[in-house]
Structures are given as structure tokens and as C-alpha cells.
Amino acid sequence: MKILILLFLIASGAGGWWYLKHKHGDEPQYLTAPVTRGEMTEAVTATGTLNPVVNVTVGSQISGNIQKLFVDFNSQVTAGQVIAQIDPAMYQAVVHQNEGNVANAKAALELAQLTAKRKQALVAEKAAAQADLDTALANLHQAEANVTIQEANLEQAKVNLSYCSIYSPINGSVVSRNVDVGQTVAAAMNAPVLFIIAKDLTQMQIDSAVAEADVGTSTVGQDVNFTVDAFPYETFHGKVAQVRNAASTVQNVVTYDVVISVKNPDLKLRPGMTASLSIIVAQKSDALKIPNAALRFRMANNEATPAPTPEPLTPPGAGRSGVGNAGRIKRRDRTVYVMPPGGGKPAPVPVKLGINDGITTEVIEGLKEGDLVVTGVSNPLPASSSATANPFGPRRF
Question: I want to staple 174 with a disulfide (CB 3.0 to 4.6 A). Which of 75, 104, 129, 276 is the partner?
Fold first, then answer.
């Protein structure tokens, strides 16, 4: 009896070991996903900074102490409004000094005119030499020139006095104020920045940096959706207003400035906010699509797998429909693996692809709705096999 029990245990253990070793055999279990229909949007993602369309820097052409400030941050101003006052005392004194110089020059001119007139009379009566008349006429001309010089100095002094009042050049809102009452501004080398005034904050723009690989699909008029950190659950909208040709290179990465026009009627958006935006390149409402994992899947090397054909280019707009730039998207021929309806091994099927939203890809030809495409395997082949089910899957050692 004991011998029978012992033999039974040995047989059970051997059978269990054999079952575990040969469980499921070498047949992999495939992961599949159905071909579905739905809305698809291909977009170019980028980041940018919100700025007013017109941003004017207001400075000072003269040096002096700030005597008065008439506006503050966020103040609404109109063109020609006085927004700051520099102490005019020194410049007023210069004006008075030049007024005196003009009066002195005019008195000297009167004297020179009288002298020249007398010399002319004496020369006519031959009571004076011609040289004396010439000297008198030269002094007269010098006096006339001196009056002109002093009047110009007076005019310059009055202009400098007028610069003591700082005016707003446009209608808008004060974005930044860089001075306080009593502060001294020095305009010896360049004009100091006193204020930054935005013309109209209801109309703004985003200066975004788009990579060179994506700038080819960005054109004027495309719709743009974007979010800002201040309102993470709200999506704002804009349009591409300009694609600038000037390139910027940072750490060997080339980007181009794409300007997005944005309406801001409720003034939620503020200058300097960082926007995460999506430029809508192509959009379809009823696209046949498959997961991108199906395009990455490849069968084992020991199974027949036709090589993918090259990726031909299709002329823009040929046989395409959709919104935006759909006609300019490049068609591509690829091979995916489809599970037969009755089961068995996946069969390779050539397909023609359309737009890609980063998760799924549009299928133009080759598949129909409801087909099961292979996206991976749940029990990959043993490590001794030379093939891998998914080149992007985990490596086995």
C-alpha cells in the first residue's frame, strides 16, 4: 500500500513538472484591439508666452528726480495723458537764462545796426575810411548770427522743459511701472524705462516656439487650442496669425516663432503667462483608426512576414478630406497583423495610413471597422528565440 502511494506521488509530481514546462506550448497569446471609427485630430504641440499685440516702452529723454506719478500698475491711460512729472526747476532756470541771452544778443544787434548805419553815412561824406564800414558791417552780421544761436538755445531749453512731463503715447493699460516718487532717472547714455503700456489687452498674441520638424505643417489661419496654468481646466482658442522665417537655435534645437492671435474679452489672460498649445493640423469626424501599438508590432523572425513597402509621397489633397491641413499629410504604406475571424495565426495586411493623433492612426485603405489588429503578446516566446514580439517591449535576459 505504501509503495502504491509513493508511486502515485512520484507520478503526480512528474506530471505537474511536465505540465508547467510545456504549458501553452510555444504558441503565443496575442493581444488585439478592434478597428474603430471616431473623431481624430492631428496637432502640433508647442509652448509659448502670452504678450500684448502692441507693447510700448515709455522712457525719459532727460535726467532728474521724479516729482509726481499720475498712474500706477493696471491704470487705464489715453494718448497724450500726463503720466509722470520730472522736477522742472533746473530746466526752468535754463530757459530763463537763455531768454536773457536772447535779449542780450538782440541788444547787441541793435547796437551793431546803428553803428553800421553811422559808418555808412560817414563813408558817404568821406569822413570815415571804407575799412571802418566793412568792420561795422561784419560786426552787424555777427550780431545777427548770435541772435539766431541764442534763440536756438532758448528753443532747446524749452523742449527740455517740456520733457519734464511724461506723456502716454497710446491708449492702453499700464503693465509695468519702474519708478517711484523721488527716484532719480539718468538719461546720459540711454533712455531709462519708466513704464510699459499695453495698447489693448482684449487682443493678445502667443509667441510660440515650434520645432523645425513641425513648422512645415503650420500655416496661417489654422485653429489653435491652448491652456494656461492659471486656468488648468479651461481651454482657450486662437488662430495662427504668422509663421516667422527667423530661426532660433538653442542647444542645437532649431525652432521657429509661430504667432497665435488670441481674443481676450474678459481679460482672464495676462501678459507673460505660459501657454501649452496645440496647433490643429488636420481633423476628421469619422475616421477609421487603429492603435499605434499595432504599427509597432512585428511577428517572430521564424514566421513569414512580408517586408513593409517604402513610404511613397502622395500629392497634396489627392483623395483626402477633412479640415485644416489634412491634404498636406503624407500617406504611408505599412503592414499590420490581423487575427482571422475563426482564430489561428495573425495574417499580415498592408494598409495605407493617414493622420496620427499620437495614440491612434487613421487607416485609409486595407482594413474595415471591427477587424482585430494585433498589438502585442501576453506570453512572449522563450528567450532562446531570435524574435521578439514587440521591439519596444521589455528585454529578456
Answer: 75
